[in-house]
Amino acid sequence: MLRSLEIRDLVVLRRAELEPPSGLTAVTGESGAGKTVLAQSLGLLLGGAPDSGAVRPGAKGALVQATLELPEGLFDELGDEHPASPARELIEDESEREVVVARRVPREGRARALVDGQAAPRDAVAGLVAELLRMSGQGESRRLLQGRVQLETLDAFAGEATVRLARDVRRLRRAAAASRRALGAARDRQAGAVRAREDLEQLVRDVDRVGPDPTEEDALRRERDRLRHRARLAAAAGAAAEAVSGDDAGGALDRAGQAAGELRAVSELDAEVEPLSRELEEVGARLQEVALGLRAYLDGLEGEPGRLDVVEARLEDYERLSRRYGPGTEQVLARAEAARAELAGAAEDDQEIERLARAHDSALTEARGAAGELHAARVDAAPRLAEAVTSELVALAMPQAVLSVSVETAGDEDPPFDRCDMTLQVNPGLPAAPLADAASGGELSRVLLALHSVAAAGGSETWVFDEVDAGVGGETAGAVAERLARLAEGRQVVVITHLPQVAAMAGAHYRLVKGVDSDGRTETRVEPVPEDELVDELCRMLGARSADAGARRHAEELLARRAGTRRSRRRSAAA
Hints:
By secondary structure, this protein is an alpha/beta fold. It has 20 helices and 15 strands.
């Protein structure tokens, strides 16, 4: 809903403020007073190209600013890919459900778009405003009568169930797209990790093949050193063994035995000799153990043939692992353990991809089912909408016009999107053409009015009609007024009009009054029309003076018709 609209220094409007309420609001004024400028200002908010030449003479720049009421959950409904989504980041308190959007057009330099006073992308502002405000006339209808708006109108005509289904389909499409992106990202990660995974698997295979153990490695190094110097070690051990227990009775073992025997022989003569004798016996026993150890060591040095080659080969395995995955066996083992954990995680990634694939298939199946149901509902409603609008156009001074509505699937998306084609044959014998090409501005506005009167589209969008009454008069003007009032039930509709029949049906009324400012420049003011001045304003629109009795009676009849229409609607609603 449009809470307020402020315009500064745009063409003839120096400063204008409107606060249209819910329901029908009429904006009137003499020709040339600036009604077109009002439509132009809304066009700027809808993304129209700025024109520095439209800045009021003497001003540095023009400003168009609107306060909009946001429907609850609007951005969640639109999704992250909608052009308006960047605006969400700039809204200070979304819970307040109001946002101020603006376009500044300087006399020199670049125009700026603003959201709550902060610079924003023009497309974000235009996308947000387009969701809340629909405009017909001055070329805007040609932009709005694209497939999306036509589908929304068709859905509204089909009924609330179809509107809810369309909302569900949008949600399911987003869910399917999100699941597809998540699956694609997981697969990309997997593809990028293939080489790394192969390296990890090779590391684990190499380590498992060798089975390294730091204790074994130390033992092997010691054994290698012993085998490499076996001759020298054997010579030393042999000489030591000979010195300890030589065959010529000159070894240390024999000498220790002889010394012990000498002392035992005299131990009876002196008691102090006996401990020394026992010590020599103990030395002899230890020398005996040493001699046995040396003999065993010498026997061990013989070893099995080729043992050194076996040890060298085993240690080469350790060294290769260390060069590639080390340094050191401890580091190799740590990396192997980390690789096993990462490979286990990679297996979990495979499971995650399978889970994401199942989730995507499920989301896609659900989206396809809902989209198919929605397509069928739209195909069923299309000819009925065309027939209803064609009948409505008769009362809107387009008796020969025939609207056709068709629904087809389009695009490569899965599920495919629906495309709504509305074509209009204005007069018999002429070919049907898309709405934007088949009708003039006024005719197109009436087609839009007929469409939305018939569809009674739900939602909180504000509709602004300009030129809807172009070329209309008499009974047709009354029909246009009645349909505008019907469309405004439960929503906000602003109509820029020159028809007193339309103005009389409005619940609120603004008029544009042209004058001259203190500098001699043309200036237009926008001012509300109080209830007690409505008859005078309607007389002016009827082309008569307020003192004209006949014109006043006509104006009063038009206002009385408004009151009667309202009572009739209340009775219908109560029934």
